[in-house]
UniProtKB/TrEMBL annotation:
InterPro entries: ABC3_permease_C, Lipoprotein-release_system, MacB_PCD. This is ABC transporter permease. It comes from the Bacteria. Belongs to the ABC-4 integral membrane protein family. LolC/E subfamily. Residues 18-239 form the MacB-like periplasmic core domain. The chain crosses the membrane at residues 18-35, 272-294, 314-344, 379-403. It is found in: Cell membrane. Keywords: Cell membrane, Membrane, Transmembrane, Transmembrane helix. One of its GO terms (biological process) is lipoprotein localization to outer membrane. One of its GO terms (cellular component) is plasma membrane protein complex. It comes from Orenia metallireducens. It is a multi-pass membrane protein. Residues 273-407 form the ABC3 transporter permease C-terminal domain.
Amino acid sequence: MFLTKLAFKNLMRHRNRTLITAIIIAFAIFFYIIMDSMIGGMTEISYKNIIDYQAGHLQLVRDDYWEDKDGLSLENLLFVDQPKMSLLESIRGYKSSSPELNFHARLNNGINELPVIGKGIIPERFKEVFAFEDQFIEGSIFSSEENKVVMGKRLADLLKLEIGDYITLLVRDKNETFNTIEAEVSGLFHTSNPNVNSNIVYLPLKIAQQALNVDKQVSKIIVKLEDKDQAMVIADELESKLKRIDDDLSIYAWEELEAISVAGAKQMGNQLIMSIILIIAAIAIINTVILATLERMEEIGMMKAMGLQEKEIIYIFVLESTGIGILGGIMGLMLGAIGVWVFANYGIDWSVIVGNNVDISSFGIPVIGKMYGTWNLKAFIFVFSFGVIVSLLSSILPAYWAASKDPVKAIYHR
């Protein structure tokens, strides 16, 4: 008990050094928590962008189509018939569904052309699944009977297209024969998904089916659920029922999409960055604790001269360092909680930071506009424990080295 009281008295007696060391630890913890919140927010908005503008919660496709889904083949398509729709509409948490015919095309404005992905859609059902309703900045979406297209403002700017301009989509139909689709631009949108803004042209499903010579078939049926977290469970429940309709049909949850896998891989890269930040924080804590210990060589010599054993001196220093680690950890948690609260409620508007004309997705940040932080209680607990343990462990070696020195040499140490 005497040694414990002495350790706490030392913390109070050297309050300036205690406070400075604790502040360094606090800032290391604060920085980790803020980075964790930012990466968590970036991951969440990436998933939301993919679900709201590209993938939905579930996708009904043929197995062979899914294996080569990026090829956008016109083989292995499916009909939208009553048995399939009845089964989808019976899903627990079902909200709506939208058929989609995807194909490669070259978008031509009469002078220049770009490769794009064409999507044949039924606009009324498309709006029920995807969050495009408030994303149009000029014009509006077409009706099913109109010979019109909509695209991202960024793509339109690349080809200097405006509302009312006519475009040509050069395509290859199911028989590998070249065909063209002439259509008027009826709307330009700007979503928070950079890929949708830059690469996709939407047109009525019937026009796409006629041009591609695929009868009334579609590439997939996209389903929206009430709760995205139930998608994987519902997909598993539905699989056996689908096989009774057609053995070649399967349904996939959004977590199984390649875009989500890429986002997951980016998350692993982010974890590597967080590990590096953690190592830098550990080095800062270790360096601070070691310097604080070595500065007290004379005090250590006095303790030995007064009869304290080596293990008692080490105990005092370890206890002091642990106390500083706990103090710095609590300060870091409080600063981190304030920072995350601000970040989660007010967010960061990237367009203000980098300017409206700069696409930050080209820097690997897959968001447009504001990004909000997320709360991660596990990160708070982990980094606090990490700070305390590192403070404890980093004090043992220098304390042992100092305590083993001759008292006279320690007192006159320079």
